[in-house]
Design a protein that fits this description.
The chain is an all-alpha fold. The protein contains 11 helices and no strands. It has 2 domains: 83 residues, Methane Monooxygenase Hydroxylase, Chain G, domain 1 (Up-down Bundle), CATH 1.20.58; 87 residues, Serine Threonine Protein Phosphatase 5, Tetratricopeptide repeat (Alpha Horseshoe), CATH 1.25.40. The protein is 79% helix and 0% strand. The chain is elongated and about 105 Å long. The termini are far apart.
Length: 230
């Protein structure tokens, strides 16, 4: 089919399609220039605010870690023991106060969990077992989960609640590769002894020895096995 011819005169009178579209776009942009400028300013403000927030959180975390270092010094001094029980208690108390301060400054992530787990250790050392349990329970889903179960086992055992202590020791005892596995197994044995279930206690000690015959506690475990056998 033959293409219809359009005269040059007519073409010149009609607006060019590209030029017409471009003009419309430019007009659209001019009309909305102020609106777009506002959107751009808002976007920049959001980015700047996010960066400022991130920087502030990093600063808070650094401040909390500095307080933790101070707390750690008191904790180490207390852990050395010595012939001054009052001084030891005072250092644990100072460590606890500093770890608590660090947590108030920054309460998120790994840094916060460090504060919580050491607050729990301090409470335990000060024989504040209920407070220790409360702090340990806040670490059961974090990187110090195994340590928390171990601490809860010791805390319940110190309170004489051997059935609850047993439950927490079992969490570590049944997990291979756990650095607290042996402590968990021995904790189970002690709890069975305290509950006057000597046969179960004997089996727990035997299992612990079989699991790690070269343990530094091997001599003690063998002695306990002999004692329970009579």
């Amino acid at each position: 089919m033959a293409r219809k011819k359009v005269s040059r005169k007519k073409l010149l009178k009609e607006p060019d399609e590209f030029i017409s579209t471009t003009g419309k776009v430019m007009q659209f942009l001019r009309e909305r220039r102020r609106q777009m400028a506002i959107y751009g300013t808002v976007a920049l403000a959001v980015v700047a605010s996010a960066f400022a927030g991130y920087s502030y959180l990093r600063w808070q975390e650094g401040k909390a870690q500095a307080i933790q270092q101070r707390a750690w010094q008191f904790y180490q001094e207390a852990s050395r023991g010595g012939s001054n029980p009052e001084g030891e208690k005072e250092n644990y108390q100072k460590a606890l106060e500093n770890f608590r301060e660090a947590l108030s400054v920054y309460g998120w992530g790994h840094t916060a969990q460090v504060s919580r787990i050491y607050m729990a250790h301090c409470h335990y050392a000060l024989k504040e077992y209920d407070q220790a349990l409360a702090s340990y329970s806040q670490c059961l889903d974090g990187p110090f989960r195994r340590m928390a179960f171990n601490g809860m086992g010791y805390s319940y055992e110190a309170k004489g609640e051997f059935a609850k202590a047993l439950e927490n020791y079992q969490e570590n005892a049944q997990e291979d590769g756990n650095p607290y596995q042996e402590e968990g197994m021995l904790g189970i044995a002690r709890c069975y002894e305290a509950l006057n279930q000597k046969q179960k206690a004997l089996e727990a000690y035997q299992k612990a020895l079989a699991r790690n015959p070269k343990s530094r506690l091997a001599d003690f475990i063998q002695w306990k096995i002999g004692e329970l056998k009579g």
